[in-house]
Amino acid sequence: MIVLLKDNEITESTLLGGNIDVDRLRQCIIDAQITRLEELLGEDLYDKICNEFDAETLEGDYLILYENYIKPFLIRQGALEFLKIGAFTIGNNGIALPTPANTTAIDSKMLSNLVSEMRAKADMFADRMYKWLCKNRLPEWVCSSDNIVNPNRPSFGSWFLTNDFIDEDIYVRNILNNK
Questions:
Q1: Which of 154, 5, 1, 161 is nearest to 76 (CA)?
Q2: Nearest CA to 10 among 33, 31, 28?
């Protein structure tokens, strides 16, 4: 599988520290590519970007798409995927939440806020990418019955109401609390 980011690009551009296990972070980048990026680009354009990235032959609009839209999106989406699972370790003893000495684990509300903020940033970059693709109409960005994954408009897991950002979980919690 071709990974479209270098190992250090997420830690250099987000709040994630440089002391993170590269293998765990790389898996989060791959998840972001498979679950969100391929859906945004569609199978044909995604394959073209991956192949030309691997061969170091990206140029023109494809290089602009990669540098200005794909890379910023993947950095935030990869960080989002890591925030959701990064605190946990899985081993022969099961799933654990290790806490190093002299540290305090954050509570679920604080983690939810971090995840929501990173999701909002990833969604913003997804929307920018979609608008750029609509404007530039690359030939590979098409729907085809031969494709397993066709381009899709970004779907967001949050709502914007009266200029306030409302996360799905908070919205549902507020409804339940008001009953």
A1: 5
A2: 28
Q: Is 5 exposed, middle or buried (0-12, 13-18, 19+ CB in 10 A)?
A: buried
**Residue 159: beta bridge partners?**
166
Task: Give kind and range of the element (H or E) at residue 45.
Answer: helix 43-55
pLDDT at 160: 44
pLDDT score of 59: 97
- pTM (predicted TM-score): 0.76
Kindly state the tokens that stand for 41.
Answer: 């680009």
**Inter-axis angle of helices 108-136 and 168-177, nearest 10:** 130
Name 86's Cβ contacts closer than 8 Å, sequence gap at least 6: 16, 20, 24, 28
Mean pLDDT of the chain: 82
